[in-house]
């Protein structure tokens, strides 16, 4: 009888040790922010590093690499201004912010400087180009 109790105790104690190393998972549908990164020629910014900082935090909230399609996902835990730094080993990258509103839904994104003022840069380029062409045709000849 003693051997039976000892064997039962031994089996139960080793079984609980095995359960303590069992990895669990859960699948949930949630409002996830998906960011796509790509170069100007539409090639993907694949497998490149990024860091995400929560509002008013110095330690990254999330660190990782983009997937094969140049995407990263973010499931913020609070509203506010989130900072995202994405970079490659060859020096390409961005440092920008997004605003997450109530219910942790994307409210606003900050575009890079060139993207925000693209129309102004194009307009100035056209004007300067026209003046350059006019100067070629109507220049005074030195005698």
Key features of this structure:
143 residues; elongated; 7 strands; five-stranded antiparallel sheet; alpha+beta; two-stranded antiparallel ribbon
Topology:
Blueprint: H1 2-20, E1 33-36, E2 49-53, E3 62-65, E4 71-74, E5 80-87, E6 93-100, E7 106-109, H2 113-116, H3 118-137
Antiparallel strand pairs: 1-4, 2-3, 2-5, 5-6, 6-7
How is this structure best described in words?
This protein is α+β, with helices and mostly antiparallel strands. 30% of the residues lie in helices and 26% in strands. It has one domain: Immunoglobulin-like. The longest helix is centred in the last third of the chain and has 20 residues, at 118-137. It is elongated and about 120 Å long. The model has no long low-confidence stretch (mean pLDDT 81).
Stretches where pLDDT is under 50 for at least 5 consecutive residues are none
What name goes with the CATH superfamily?
A: Immunoglobulins
Q: Order of SSEs, N→C? A: HEEEEEEEHH
Strand numbers in spatial order across the main sheet: 3-2-5-6-7
- Classify the beta-strand content into a percent band: 25-35%
Question: Could you provide a short overview of the structure?
Answer:
With 143 residues, the protein is of the alpha+beta class. 30% of the residues lie in helices and 26% in strands.
């Amino acid at each position: 009888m003693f051997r039976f109790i000892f064997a039962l105790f031994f089996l139960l104690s080793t079984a609980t040790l095995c359960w303590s190393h069992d990895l669990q998972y859960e699948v949930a549908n949630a409002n996830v922010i998906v960011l796509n990164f790509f170069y100007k020629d539409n090639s993907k910014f694949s497998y490149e590093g990024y860091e995400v900082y929560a509002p008013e935090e110095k330690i990254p909230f999330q660190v990782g690499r983009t997937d094969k399609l140049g995407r990263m996902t973010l499931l913020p835990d609070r509203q506010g201004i989130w900072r995202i730094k994405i970079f490659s080993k060859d020096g390409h990258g961005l440092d920008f912010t997004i605003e997450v509103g109530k219910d942790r839904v994307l409210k606003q994104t900050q575009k890079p400087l060139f993207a925000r003022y693209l129309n102004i840069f194009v307009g100035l380029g056209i004007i300067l180009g026209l003046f350059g062409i006019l100067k070629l045709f109507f220049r005074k000849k030195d005698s």
